Amino acid sequence: MTIRVVLDTNVLVSALLFENGRLAWLRRSWQTDAIRPVLAEPTARGLIRVLAYPKFRLTRPAIDQLLGDVLPWCETTAGPIETCQHQVRDPKDQVFLDLALTAGVPVLVSGDGDLLALKHQLQPLLILTPGEFQIWLDAP
Q1: Of 30, 62, 63, 79, which residue is least crowded by CB atoms under 10 Å?
Q2: What DSSP assignment string belongs to the chain?
C-alpha cells in the first residue's frame, strides 16, 4: 500500500541532492511506490526556488533532472489549500501543515522545529522527523 505524505522542502531537497546521504532512502521509497509525496503549486514552486539557490551550483538541466526524479511519483493537489486553525510559528512553514490537512495525508515529514512543535496537537495527522518516519514505515 502506498502512503501519501507531505515532505517539506528541506527533506525533499536532501533526498534529491544527496544520493548516498541519510535521506537517500526516501527517493527509493517514492520510486518504488512505498510513499507518494503530495505537492501543491506553492510547495512545488518552493522546491524549484530552493534547488536554484547559488550554494547548490545546479544548472537548469541538473535541476530539471532532479525534478524528473521526484515529480513523476508525486500527487498534485490542484485546488486551493485551506488555511487551518493551527498556526506554525514560522509562517513560511504554514503551507506544509495546510497542505497536509487539506489533502488528508496521514503523515507530514519535516526536520523543522516549528512544524515538529505541533506534533502532538493534530492527531490523526502524524508530524514526524525523517528518522521517525523511516521507523514508522518499517513497523509491521
Answers
A1: 79
A2: -PEEEEE-HHHHHHHHH-TTSTTHHHHHHHHTTSEEEEEEHHHHHHHHHHHT-GGG---HHHHHHHHHTTGGG-EEE-SPPPPPSSPPSSGGGHHHHHHHHHHT-SEEE---HHHHTTTTTSTTSEEE-HHHHHHHHH--
